[in-house]
Amino acid sequence: MAEFEAKRRHAGVICILSDLDKEGIELFDLHKGLEDVELAFNAMKNELESDKTHLRSDEAVRGYFFITFLALRVYFKILQRLREKGLTTRIAVDEV
Prior knowledge:
With 96 residues, the protein is mainly alpha-helical.
């Protein structure tokens, strides 16, 4: 408990202003969910290098983003497995 209190003194404060009729913990969970979305977009743009399309038809764009979605699923599944085995400091997803 003493260790927790020592760390708590150095912790910051997160302020979220909202007009939603929800408890603070629910709002914080929503905020954390947005962080997950941002992480996925960052991986899409930087890791998969999939941020630009030069396609002309709606169908081609839909197909492109479907394939990108599948690639993101594979990317995060590999990342999850690496984290579970404690390997993220020794190997990157793109090296698998």
